[in-house]
Structure formats: structure tokens, C-alpha cells
Amino acid sequence: MDRIIEKKKWTPKKIVSIIAVAAFVFFIIYLLFLRDNSSKLYVEKNQLTIATVEKGKFKEFIPTDGVVLPKSTVYIDAIQGGIVDKKYVEDGAMLQKGDTILKLLNTQMELSYMEQETRALAERNNLANTKLALEQNVYLRQKEIVNLEYQIDGKKIDFDRKVQLYNDSIISKKEFEDAKREFEFTTKQLKISLKLQRLDSIAGANQKRSIDESLKRMEHNLSLLRKNIENAYVRAPANGKLSSFNVEIGEMKVGGEHLGQIDMQDGFKLRANIDERYLSRVYTGQRADFDLNGKNFELEIARIYSDVTNGSFQVDLHFLADHPKSVKRGQTIQLRLQFSGETDALIIKRGGFFQETGGNWIYVVDPSNSFAIKRNIRINRQNTNQYEVMEGLKPGEKVIISSYDSFGNKDKLIFK
């Protein structure tokens, strides 16, 4: 007897078809959503420099070179021009103020001095003779007055006697009138001489005062002339060490020409060139430091030369304490010019990656240490050793800080 054979719902063919469809759908989903579409590059891990992101102290500074110079310098310039006739010391000599350094020979100036001195001496003699004549005139006027007073005394006695004789009718009227006229004439002469004496006294005093002032000016001019001659001897203006003194006998020097300088023994300073980009951020009192022989030395900016030359400007820095004993004039020392104090920050070491990324992104190593992924970050301040990270990284993460030149801006680096 026939029986109905029940048709199977899950035939092998149907199962295979369903699996095939499911596999195709999954493949489409994988292609669209699950596949890693990022560009990849295989790299040798041992050729990379990997650093850890850390939480630590950050100080912003820039490196710059400072040249050691004396703290105080006095320049030596030629006041009078001339030919170098004698050198009394050599460069590097320790000098006391007033020590003779060299002699300049200027024959024309010496002849001019002799001529002016001769004229001045002649004029001084003339003025002295004029002053003497004024003194003599005073005594002559006094002698004249004394003589007139003597005559008046005699004329008065004679006149008084003749008045009595005339009253007694012993002498004639003519004799009386002659005696009276002589007495009055001599009296008038005395009055005139006294007036002249007063005028002579006033004029003589003014003239003598003028002569004295002229003589004083003349003495001053002569002293200036003598000083000009003395300026042929160049002397040390202060105590210290002679430097930059490069002159030779027979060499011609003009007035105002720089001959050398005295380095005073009151310490050293550093003069540094700083990029003009930092001109607005540099100020008097700003700190800097450097390490030498295992010891740190601090300085501060004492003077800013704001003139920009070849893209940089100069500053003078003074030591806050004693300067290193081993430094010498002209020595170059690398400084750290500070723009901020120490602050807490998220930091990574400096590396070649910054030139390629500008600090906008970095490769972050996966915890599996098998690959690294590109990630956007933001870097703020920097110094010679570190970058300050503001966004994109966490403490403890590892990043690749070596150069990215050969990576071609890939999204993912797979370590071999």
C-alpha cells in the first residue's frame, strides 16, 4: 500500500543556498562597515623612536648662544691724531688709571702750539704793561694833587698876608688882585685834578678788571694748548686689563679713532643674539640659565638692544650670583632663555615628527604593541627637550616621535 512521503523542509540544497546568501550578505556588510579601510604601512619597529606621554613639570625656554664679555668696559680713543711714536705696554697688560699706553707724534700740532704760545705770551706781556701803566698813572695823579695842595697852601698864606697889607694900604690894589687870582686859580686846578682822579679811578678799575679777565682767559687757553700736547700721550682711563689693543709703531691714527679698551675687573656679562620673533616677549629682568661643570648659573637680562640686524637683536645678561671662575672673555656659552616658570603639563619628548606634522597629529602605539594609529593632537608650548600637549593624548600612552618622512602620511603603521 502506497504511503505519502512527506517533503523535507531543510534539504541540503536549501541549507547550502541559505548559507551562501548569508555569507554574501555578511561579505557585503564587511565590505561596507567592518573592513579596515585605513591606509597601512609595514615598518620595522626597532627603527622607530617611541616615547611615553607623561604628566610632569614644563618650563618654556629657547636656546641661545651668549658671548662672555667684561661687565664694565672703558673705551680708549685717540683725542689727537698722529703717528704712533712709542708703545709702553702690550695687549693684555694690567693697568692702573693714568698709566701711559702709547705716544702719538703730531709735528704740525706741536708747531702750531709753539706759535700760539708765543703769541699768547706776547699778548700777556702787553696786557701786563698796560696794567702797570694804569698803576703808574694813579701815582702820577696823586703826585699832581699833592703838588697842587702844596701850592694852594702857599698861595693861601700869601693871599691872607696881602689881604691884611691891602687893608692897611701898604700894597697896591693890583698886588692884592694878583694874589687873589693866583689862589683861586690853584684852587680850581685842584678841583679839576680831583675830578680827574675820580674818573681815572673808575676807568682804571674797569680796565684792570678787563685786563685780569683777559689774562685769565689767556692762561686757560694756554692750559688747553698744553693739554692738547699732553693728549699725545694716551693714558689708561681706569684700572683694568688692556684689550683689543692692536697698534704698531709708525701707524697713523686719526682723532677719535678707537685704539683699545680697558676691561674692568668687576665681573663678566653675556651678550646674546635672539631671533627677532621674540622681541615682544623679551624684557629687562627676564631670567636665563646654563649648566657648566655640573653647576647651574642664573642670569637676568640687564639691557636690550632693540635694533634688529640680520633677523636678530642683542641683549646683555648679568649673573645673579658669582660667575663661573673658568669662563674667559670671548667664550661662547649656550643659554636657556626662560619664558615661563615650571608648570604642571602633559609632555612628550621632542622628536623629528614635528617637522612633518607641525604638532597637529601623531602616531599612537596600540596597547598590543603591534601597530600604531594616526591621531589628531594639539601642541602648545615647547622647549629644547619637550612639547606641551593640550589635546589628544593621555598619560601613559606611547607615541612615535622619530621622523615621519618615509611614512607617506599613512593612517596605520604595522610593526614587523
What does this protein look like?
- The two termini are 73 Å apart.
- The chain is α+β, with helices and mostly antiparallel strands and 416 residues long.
- The longest helix is centred in the first third of the chain and has 61 residues, at 107-167.
- Strand 15 and strand 16 (312-319) form a beta hairpin.
- The strands form five sheets. Strands 1-24-20-19-23-2 form a six-stranded mixed sheet, with no helix packed on it.
- It has helices at 12-34, 107-167, 173-230, 353-357; strands spanning 40-43, 50-52, 54-58, 61-70, 73-77, 82-87, 94-95, 100-105, 233-235, 240-243, 252-253, 258-263, 268-275, 287-292, 295-309, 312-319, 332-338, 343-349, 361-365, 371-376, 378-382, 386-391, 398-400, 412-415.
Give the helix/strand layout.
Elements lengths: L11 H23 L5 E4 L6 E3 L1 E5 L2 E10 L2 E5 L4 E6 L6 E2 L4 E6 L1 H61 L5 H58 L2 E3 L4 E4 L8 E2 L4 E6 L4 E8 L11 E6 L2 E15 L2 E8 L12 E7 L4 E7 L3 H5 L3 E5 L5 E6 L1 E5 L3 E6 L6 E3 L11 E4 L1
Parallel strand pairs: 1-24
Antiparallel strand pairs: 2-23, 3-18, 4-13, 4-17, 5-12, 6-8, 6-11, 7-10, 8-9, 10-12, 13-16, 14-15, 14-17, 15-16, 18-22, 19-20, 19-23, 20-24, 21-22
